[in-house]
Write a structure and sequence with these properties.
The chain starts with a strand and ends in a 5-residue tail after the last helix. Strands 1-2-3 form a three-stranded antiparallel beta sheet, with no helix packed on it. The model has no long low-confidence stretch (mean pLDDT 90). The protein is rod-shaped, with a radius of gyration of 16 Å. It is built from one helix and three strands. The longest helix is centred in the last third of the chain and has 4 residues. With 50 residues, it is mostly beta strands. The protein has one domain.
Length: 50
């Protein structure tokens, strides 16, 4: 079985894809990271970047 997890934070987005066998062991197939910078102006503007 293959599973993916996505973490959307205020400054970056992470995704990991793993394959899990019948015994609960897993192997990471791929991982990606993008800098979204959504929280870049939170302290000055009090809001996320559009």
């Amino acid at each position: 079985m293959k599973l993916a997890a996505i973490d959307i934070g205020s400054n970056s987005i992470h995704m990991i894809v793993a394959e899990i066998d019948g015994e609960g062991n897993f192997a990471i197939i791929d991982r990606q990271k993008e800098m979204a910078r959504l929280g870049e102006r939170v302290l000055s503007d009090g809001a996320l970047t559009p």
